[in-house]
Design brief:
heterodimer; A: mainly alpha; Helix Hairpins; minor pseudopilin epsh fold; 2 domains; about 50% helix; B: Helix Hairpins; three-stranded antiparallel β-sheet; 11 helices; globular; disordered N terminus; binds fe (ii) ion; metal-binding (chain B)
């Protein structure tokens, strides 16, 4: 009986939308990067940003809106949609678009004009504690990004034991908790789905992220990203947020 | 130059014989060591057409990078992984043997898939895009309704594939029927079933179209049919279905 009502409501919503045009869900807007599209030149070209943000990212946003409107996911946060639709690895249709919207929002904030160099303060201390040295971290992060087979992402994340979620059945390489780790993920997948990770930094290693500027030379793109683009300020402030979240739970 | 010539040579025994007087580089020495243990060294196959011959469907720049850089890298890393496998097997180092499987599947798959892909393409003046005739043409009509219906199905599945991968027209030798399948990354068609034989594989990695089609994968898929070599697919079909 309940199922029938839900079905009727869905039908009704669909009918409304057909008459009024799709409802705009204000939460899922295409957010611009926190700098102009030519600000990362010459390292990452304006043309790359025009396509990567202006086409790829935009399409993920538009497709997500269409998939969510009038469903039970309507009104949920992006993070909730990602975790729900990951469905323990047996992914449901909105997952790819939802996760890619989140990943790209996050990725743009990982870069800044004149970025690169070394982190400082507590972030640097934790990197040295958990990887041995900044150089060792760099090597591990670059290797993860270079060896992700096919499309995907490499991450620096804080792994905490306290936090847990439904999808945390098979977190990759769960050796120790409460430390910084480098992980990689295929296609649209991000560490949110495994519950116990707080992402701090990411690099997009889909070919569209670097093909116009570097063609097949993914390792060159990764090196330049670390040398000249990474915003360690953004990474540090995420570490602060992660700590605040962990201590508040 | 000598090192390059040596590398592109199939049998290193011959190379070592011919160039015995010349100093061998480290890589060549390693390759020679592989050969002495009977390991085959894979090399980049030549294309049957020029890089620019598939224009305007696929640009010469894409073809050159795709063949000389991407395919070559799969081959280089495949040879490397096989060499490491050989050493690990010799030392009965099982954990390394198992660890190498991912690299072998990815790079070996990349070599297998691209070798088929080059055969699946042909310039228009050499029959590229001409629909299949004979038994494959009939089989397509039987299984998909029409040639156009097959194209629509491949395009739809190729466009929907997340991330990097391939969309295939294959023959199921056991059930004697044609199938459209997709595989992720560089997984060859056989990973979807031991009886599947690839007739046609379409590369939907972004590197296959990005310089020309950017984010619009459906346009790449729409245009690639103009340079598909159905003669090759028909030959494989006839051989495998008889
Ligand atoms: Fe991207
Ligand atoms: Fe390819």
């Amino acid at each position: 009986m309940l199922r029938h009502i839900v079905f009727f409501v869905l039908l009704f919503k669909k009918a409304c939308c057909a008459m009024q045009g799709p409802k705009v869900n204000a939460k899922f807007e295409l957010k611009p990067p926190p700098y102009p599209l030519n600000a990362l030149e010459p390292v990452m070209s304006q043309q790359t940003l025009e396509f990567h943000w202006g086409k790829h990212h935009k399409t993920y946003v538009e497709n997500l809106k269409k998939q969510v409107v009038g469903t039970e996911l309507d009104g949920k946060t992006l993070e909730e949609i990602i975790v729900t639709s990951y469905n323990k690895g047996d992914i449901l249709p909105p997952f790819n678009n939802a996760a890619q919207v989140w990943n790209h929002d996050f990725f743009w904030e990982c870069m800044k004009p004149g970025g690169g160099g070394e982190p400082s303060g507590e972030l640097l201390e934790l990197i040295e504690r958990d990887f041995g040295s900044f150089e060792k971290f760099l090597a591990e992060f670059k290797a993860a990004a270079a060896t992700q087979f096919g499309s995907g992402w490499a991450w620096l994340a804080y792994r905490a034991s306290k936090f847990d979620a439904e999808n945390a059945e098979n977190p990759p390489s769960p050796d120790e908790d409460n430390k910084l780790v480098v992980i990689k993920s295929p296609n649209a997948v991000n560490p949110l789905v495994w519950g116990c990770y707080y992402p701090l930094l990411t690099i997009d290693v889909w070919e569209h992220a670097y093909y116009l500027d570097f063609q097949n030379r993914r390792p060159d793109y990764i090196s330049v990203f670390m040398d000249k683009l990474v915003s360690w300020d953004a990474v540090s402030s995420r570490l602060e947020e992660a700590k605040a979240l962990i201590t508040s739970t | 130059m000598a090192a390059r010539a040596l590398f592109s040579s199939k049998t290193l025994a011959r190379v070592v014989r011919n160039d015995a007087a010349k100093p061998l580089g480290v890589g060549v020495a390693a390759a020679a060591a592989m050969h002495s243990r009977g390991l085959h060294v894979y090399t980049l196959p030549d294309l049957d057409y020029d890089y620019g011959a598939l224009e305007p469907a696929i640009s010469g720049e894409i073809m050159q990078l795709h063949h000389q850089k991407h395919h070559q890298t799969y081959i280089t890393n495949y040879n490397k992984a096989l060499e490491q496998l050989d050493a690990a097997v010799a030392k009965a180092d099982s954990s390394t043997v198992v660890k190498l499987q991912n690299a072998i599947k990815f790079n070996g798959g990349g070599h297998i898939n691209h070798s088929i892909f080059w055969k699946n393409l042909a310039p228009v003046r050499e029959g590229g895009g001409e629909p299949p005739k004979g038994s494959l043409g009939w089989a397509i009509d039987t299984h998909f309704g029409s040639f156009d219906a097959l194209i629509q199905k491949v395009n739809a599945e190729g466009a929907a594939l997340q991330g990097s991968g391939w969309v295939w027209l294959g023959l199921d030798k056991e059930l004697k029927r044609l199938v459209v399948e997709t595989t992720a990354n560089q997984d060859p068609l056989v990973t979807k079933g031991p009886n599947l034989v690839p007739l046609l594989g379409v590369d939907v990695w972004e590197h296959a179209y990005y310089l020309q089609y950017k984010n619009v994968r459906p346009d790449y898929l729409k245009n690639i049919w103009k340079v598909i070599n159905w003669k090759y697919a028909s030959e494989v079909y006839e051989k495998e279905s008889s």
